[in-house]
Amino acid sequence: MDKNTYYITTPIYYPSDKLHIGHAYCTTVADALARYHRIKGEEVFFLTGSDEHGLKIQRKAAEKGVTPLQYVDEIIANFQLLWKELNISNNDFIRTSQERHHKVVQDTLTKIYEKGDIYKKNYEGLYCVPCESYWLERQLVDGKCPDCGRPVEKMQEESYFFEMSKYADWWMDFIDKNPDFIQPASRRNEMINFVKQGLEDLCITRTTFDWGIPVPFDQKHVVYVWFDALLNYLTGIKYGTDEAMFNKFWPASLHLVGKEIVRFHTIIWPIMLHAMGVEIPKKVYGHGWLVVDGDKMSKSKGNVIDPLALIDEFGADAIRYFLLREINLGSDGNFSRDALITRTNADLANDLGNLLHRTVSMIEKYHGGIVADMGASEPIDDELKALVASTVADFTKQMDNMEINAAIKSVWGLISRANKYIDETAPWILAKDETKADRLKTVMYNLAETLRNVAILVSPFITTASPKIYAQLGLEVPAQFLLKEAVWGGLANGTKVAKGEPLYPRIEIDKDGCTVIGGKKYVPQVAAPAPAPEPEKPAMEPIKPECTMADFEKLDLRVGKVVAAEKVKKSKKLLKLQVEIGDEVRTVVSGIAMHYTAEELVGRNVIVIANLAPATLFGVESRGMILAASDSQGKLVLADAPDMASGSRVK
Ligand code: ME8
């Protein structure tokens, strides 16, 4: 049964930094679709939010000296401000740090664990911290993360694994039976090839940091961020707490995501849901990426566009319109300030703004503001009426297919036709001829009625325009515009129009290259000169899994004094040391020849693991190991205990 509901989600964004125009793009597209389904009369639930856990956030908070929650709170306030300023109509904002979400994640984990799909093992892998993902050596590109191109870190930890591999056949079958699940089709093929290469089990817990949701059956583990994050889509519609609400909106109609996270949403997510016995969403759409003036946005290039500053200068509608009109949803797109100004002036200020302004001004001038269709029709009117009907049909079909820019082009085709209709009917000439009085009234009615239809059609895209058009046409602004009212003849005779401010002021550029909008001057945000690249902070090796005091006490650490030292023949790295430990002198071979000369060491105290099983290196038996600190750049410094008698215990 068709539920007449529509559940749409955006990715929940990481609050590790302020959002940029790329994030605004995804949320604007989702908002346009949500609004479109509302005008179709569907009950829509539109969810966005923040993905707060993980090592990246924990490290950033530690750098600032605040708790992870304090760190994200401030950034999330900025997300919410952005969505308000951009007129985003989300029904809820989910935060993964919220109690409601913890419960869903913990209950889900327990359910899958009890089902037997989760097991524990020691894991060593290559981890990309920004993407919070493990990779296999063969998946790296030039030794770096295949998703973001940044270096990976070797991590070792005891983890729980979700036995995804056993669902590979189910997944293939599901994709086969649901060919529209992954959109666009090119991404579907990528995913099929990925799974064909072999589906690995998924490591779903971490012990190397604690900013996450505790695993209910093993509290020293926290849940892997992606396993945690994906479940937000269930929490948002009250999975497990409000059955009626959940059943109303699940399965989700659409998860809109960027192309780089299609894999998580189309492989991991359906398999998780299948293991839980929950229905699979209807569609995942991977949209393209936005670049700026042809270049990938990056802090070091200083070309990261702050959407709030843009909204302040140009208004939300101009930004929304540009993003939706200019970019073909599945493909990458380019943002440029010049193109934004050109589009806004041409389509919003000129085409739409002028059509409204000319129409309402003429109705006021010729008819005291009153609209009336006197039935004095001519063939050109039928053409206009037919175009309204076909535009509504095209728009509906295109929006149903998520061809947003095509739908906008259709509506602007109608707007252009209406402007041309003014030129062709020449109302200023009709006004001079009394015998044409009825014809003039009909012409003006046709224009006003076209605008009423246009107001409905543009409402998903430029949200402030539709109420203003309605108000200028003298119509009561409805709580919800409805597509079913976009049919010819809805405007009643006798309606009184009321001219208002121009819909969109023209953007002028003054001699200094500044924009002047509605009399206010804006100095363009100059791309900040690229800051000198921050010296890469050596990544700390992850802490090893916990050990007990009893484990530690097995080691016998002693202060030793180096009494003689020489290089081990044929080895670049090894020194052979004679180390006095109390009454005994023993041979210890140590890999420190690149850092210390033999002479430097004689007479110096070191710390020795005195009860380490002997090992033979380059033919020399070593009885013990000396301790040193080393960083990831390979620097090495011996641990020391100056002025302590040799043989003293280290504990
Ligand atoms: O991936 N162009 O969060 P995130 C277009 N927390 N879209 C862009 C973009 C660009 N240049 N840059 C970002 C995460 N995006 C996870 C998601 S969901 C369960 C967890 C958009 O903050 C695009 O939609 O890195 C992309 O998928 C998303 O932001 C990634 O946001």
Main beta-sheet annotation: 6 strands, parallel
* Overall average pLDDT: 92
Classify the oligomer.
single chain
**What is the tally of beta strands?**
28
Any ligands, ions or cofactors bound here, and which?
Answer: ligand ME8
Helix content: 25-40%
Rg from alpha-carbon coordinates:
33 Å
SS-based class: alpha+beta
- In whole angstroms, the N-to-C terminal distance is 71 Å
Question: Could you walk me through the main structural features you see in this protein, from its secondary elements to its overall organization?
Answer:
By secondary structure, the chain is of the alpha+beta class. It is 39% helix and 20% strand. The protein is built from 20 helices and 28 strands. A 6-stranded parallel β-sheet has the order 3-2-1-12-13-7, with helices on both faces. Strand 20 and strand 21 form a beta hairpin. The radius of gyration is 33 Å and the shape is elongated. About 2% of the residues have low confidence. Bound molecules: ligand ME8.
Summarize this structure as a short list of keywords or feature phrases.
single chain; 651 residues; alpha+beta; six-stranded parallel sheet; six-stranded antiparallel sheet; 20 helices; elongated; binds ligand ME8
Topology diagram in text:
Elements: E1 5-13, H1 21-39, E2 43-50, H2 55-64, H3 68-85, E3 92-95, H4 99-115, E4 118-128, E5 133-135, E6 153-162, H5 168-177, E7 182-183, H6 185-196, E8 202-203, E9 205-206, E10 214-215, E11 218-223, H7 225-230, H8 232-235, H9 243-249, E12 254-258, H10 262-276, E13 284-287, E14 290-292, H11 307-314, H12 316-326, E15 333-335, H13 337-367, H14 379-400, H15 404-425, H16 427-430, H17 437-458, H18 465-472, E16 507-509, E17 515-517, E18 520-522, H19 549-553, E19 557-567, E20 575-581, E21 584-590, H20 598-601, E22 605-609, E23 615-617, E24 620-622, E25 625-626, E26 628-630, E27 636-638, E28 649-650
Helix pairs in contact: 2-3, 11-12, 12-13, 13-15, 13-17, 14-15, 14-17, 15-17, 17-18
Bound molecules: ligand ME8.
